[in-house]
Amino acid sequence: MLSDLHYRDTGCAQWTAAVVAHLSQLRPRPAFCVLAGDLTEDGAPGQLTAVKRAFWGLPFPVHALPGNHDCDLEGSFENYRAVYGPTLNYRFSVAGREFLVLDSTEGRKVYRARVSRESLVWLEGQLASLPRERPVTLFTHLPLGKNWLRPVNAEAVIRLFAHHRLEGVFSGHWHGLTQTRRESSVLVTGRCASRWRRNHDGSDEKGYLLCAVRSGRLSHRFISVGRPGEEGLRLASLMPGHPGLSAGCEPGTNSAPSAGTHG
Ligand SMILES: [Fe+2]
Predict the structure, then answer these.
(1) What pTM was computed for the model?
(2) Range 225-237 average pLDDT
(3) What's the CA gap between 15 and 226, in Å, rounded?
């Protein structure tokens, strides 16, 4: 899961290319990638299209969901829908596991947002048709765990999973590593992948969360793409024929700070 690119202008193009190049070098190749909102800064058509062009070139499926910054300045998601499709809530399956992508936004609201009735009704309908023993992972932009930026009805969303095997909830919005445990579920936020926006956990490293399932258990770790300003160097190091990936940059093996609790 990668979130909070906050793409705003062509100044973000090289950084975004470096992030995509980093993902494309991952081995084994990921089954898919989820962009968990705030793809852009202002939800402008040019910003939305630039992100889509960059990520949809990856050799694996990419799924997007909107963040509060992906609607336009009037609070409309029309631009977003025109680029990423009309459906904001959707579900897909991979290897016997279910993945639910839920729109958690209320326009551009940052704090005390409410997950819409439409999203809740959709979620309820999906869960009704889902076998209870099947592992489920949820992606939202606004965090559902213990976080002051969580939606006011975050608990109502979590309660809908009471009779299901919710393994993880992965979210953006809070630009920092956090992890809250709720019975057998883990509720996580990741650091941002933005060139210019800062992390809220005081860290400089930008990147994404790499998830894996081993022996039936879902795990995740932060993978650093680096610090903005180094993207030219990193792109060069990822070029075919280059002597090798620079130290600390090799995908999947760079230092991955363990997820800590926060707030
Ligand atoms: Fe953000």
Answers:
(1) 0.89
(2) 76
(3) 10
